[in-house]
Structure to design on (626 residues):
């Protein structure tokens, strides 16, 4: 029972983390290696608003998410748009930006256990004999709500359809008058906002540490490779696989093996079905 | 300096045109023109330790510089000649270093045997680890190489293998400071010119073709995955050579061999120096590594600095210094009337 409850919560958290990465990649084919950095930045911004500016918690969260989205949009507009299409430069640039942010935060003093966000809700509840903190439940419910909102956005609004169009066939979409750069900008901002959202929901469960930035990046990448790069359904399914695998290793082996499990999962996926579980798109193109 | 209507055009210098073909051997002037830059590089590298005889600290910096240059060459080779972006050069350093430590401490190999054998063993292991993503196109290679150094650190820490977070100590050192310097300088020169030679052979052409259009390579009946595997083996051999050397230099192999510096400085060096020629990698390193020694007090802020420089170069001067200098050396500009 414990495994099931914690497995579900862990999986939803993982998919929350990975959603930003998957969104950006699926729409604009940009591997956003700054994803983990944006995640940790938003946590830091919220902490700053809360402790340095003394704002109310809700307001700081809104500010944190907004600021991270704007940061993402700026990164796209000022740097990545200029090198769009040069694959090597895209990869190196996002990687360098991510490193610069993470290491800058480390240098700026984001160390130790002094940086914590309070949880929204104290207390816990028993579900089938397992004690679960309200904060985790809250993250679960809100995570599902975000997925639902994204689904509705993409299926039914004009912007969402534009995003989908660019994701499916960039040239055809451009011929229909969809501005590829604008869509990529929106996707980058949305991806950053999503990573901020995940950070706000998940970070209150622990400290804000710089290493989290790298861990989030690794897990997001693992999830999106296993699910098939750029496939949302795949990412959600993959985060359930990894989420449960992690909880199971924690119960039966030890927490040390968690990283190894994700690595093994990635290598197995690449060997057996490189396009991932749901990666039906362009299977022929992916392999040489 | 707009001199009336017209446009600026670039024309090859006469001596460049002459030395392209058989006339290169026609006079000593042409030969000097061709060999000049190469001889300059070799001479500077060989004389540098002698020039810095009075400054032992900077003699050690030369070693570090050469190790970074090896890594940068390996990155440049993979990225600009084969089209694989390797974001984790630290992986090669780490694997090579740990192999050297094991060979030297546990198997008691002497220094000059343990470095090459560690490089070969490390190259085999790294290639095997990267093999799953070599048959794929796209960003998989970058992603997987990004993950490995981070994972290695966590795995070694968590399982307390290979000396855990203390590392393996007690490696043999080099017999003196001059052997120390000249070992790595000679390795660097051999790798540089060997690799340039390789790229001019048939296999080098195929590698360039893999970067430019892998489908057409495949259509010619050449196995792309095999070519990529070979390239990764060569690149990781070069990286592991540096790692094994570094482990012996520090007489220690530990987690800091997987440090981010080893991943980001080579990338920054290649971007600044200019990719594709392999010389650019060395030029970039000889700017960045001394700079990083001066900025030692800033700690991790240096990485921020590299990344900023790197991004700036990618966005505003993606060509790099070396191709710029090559152009100036080979061509001149003039206004042409239209």
């Amino acid at each position: 029972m414990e495994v099931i409850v914690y497995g579900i919560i862990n999986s939803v958290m993982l998919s929350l983390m990975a959603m930003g990465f998957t969104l950006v990649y699926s729409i604009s084919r940009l591997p956003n290696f700054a994803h983990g950095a944006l995640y940790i930045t938003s946590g830091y911004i919220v902490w700053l608003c809360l402790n340095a500016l003394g704002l109310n918690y809700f307001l700081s969260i809104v500010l944190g998410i907004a600021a991270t989205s704007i940061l993402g949009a700026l990164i796209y507009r000022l740097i990545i748009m200029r090198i769009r299409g040069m694959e090597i430069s895209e990869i190196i640039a996002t990687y360098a930006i991510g490193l610069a942010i993470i290491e800058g935060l480390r240098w700026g003093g984001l160390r130790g256990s002094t940086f914590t966000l309070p949880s929204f809700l104290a207390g816990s509840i028993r579900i089938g004999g397992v004690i679960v903190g309200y904060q985790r439940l809250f993250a679960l419910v809100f995570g599902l709500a975000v997925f639902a909102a994204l689904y509705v956005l993409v299926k039914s609004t004009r912007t969402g359809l534009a995003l989908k169009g660019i994701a499916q066939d960039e040239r055809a979409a451009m011929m229909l008058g969809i501005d590829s750069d604008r869509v990529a900008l929106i996707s980058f901002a949305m991806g950053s906002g999503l990573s901020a959202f995940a950070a706000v929901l998940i970070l209150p469960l622990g400290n804000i540490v710089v290493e989290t930035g790298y861990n989030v990046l690794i897990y997001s990448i693992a999830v999106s490779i296993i699910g098939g790069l750029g496939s949302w359904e795949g990412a959600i399914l993959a985060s359930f696989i990894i989420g449960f695998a992690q909880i199971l290793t924690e119960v039966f082996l030890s927490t040390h093996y968690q990283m190894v499990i994700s690595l093994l999962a990635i290598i197995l996926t690449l060997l057996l079905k490189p396009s991932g579980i749901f990666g039906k798109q362009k299977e022929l193109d992916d392999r040489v | 300096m707009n001199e009336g209507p017209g446009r600026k055009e670039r024309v090859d210098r006469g001596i460049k045109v002459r030395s392209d073909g058989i006339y290169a051997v026609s006079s000593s002037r042409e030969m000097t023109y061709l060999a000049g830059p190469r001889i300059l590089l070799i001479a500077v590298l060989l004389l540098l330790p002698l020039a810095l005889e009075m400054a032992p600290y900077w003699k050690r910096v030369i070693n570090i510089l050469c190790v970074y240059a090896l890594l940068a060459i390996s990155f440049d080779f993979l990225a600009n000649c084969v089209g694989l972006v390797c974001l984790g050069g630290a992986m090669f350093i780490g694997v090579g270093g740990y192999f050297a430590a094991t060979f030297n401490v546990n198997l008691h190999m002497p220094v000059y045997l343990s470095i090459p054998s560690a490089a070969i063993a490390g190259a085999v292991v790294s290639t095997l680890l990267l093999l799953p993503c070599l048959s794929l196109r796209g960003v998989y290679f970058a992603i997987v190489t990004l993950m490995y150094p981070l994972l290695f650190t966590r795995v070694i820490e968590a399982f307390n293998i290979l000396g855990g977070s203390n590392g393996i100590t007690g490696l043999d050192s080099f017999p003196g400071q001059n052997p120390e310097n000249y070992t790595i300088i000679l390795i660097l020169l051999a790798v540089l010119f060997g690799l340039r030679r390789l790229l001019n052979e048939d296999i080098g052409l195929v590698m360039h073709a893999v970067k430019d259009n892998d489908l057409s390579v495949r259509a010619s009946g050449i196995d792309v995955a095999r070519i990529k595997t070979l390239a990764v083996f060569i690149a990781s051999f070069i990286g592991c050579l540096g790692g094994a050397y570094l482990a012996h230099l520090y007489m220690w192999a530990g987690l800091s061999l997987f440090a981010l510096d080893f991943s980001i400085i080579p990338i920054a060096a290649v971007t600044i120096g200019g990719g594709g020629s392999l010389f650019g990698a060395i030029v970039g390193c000889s700017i960045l590594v001394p700079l990083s020694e001066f900025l030692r007090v800033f700690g991790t802020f240096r990485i921020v600095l590299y990344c900023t420089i790197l991004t700036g170069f990618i966005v505003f001067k993606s060509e790099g210094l070396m191709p710029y200098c090559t152009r100036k050396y080979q061509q001149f500009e003039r206004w042409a009337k239209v």
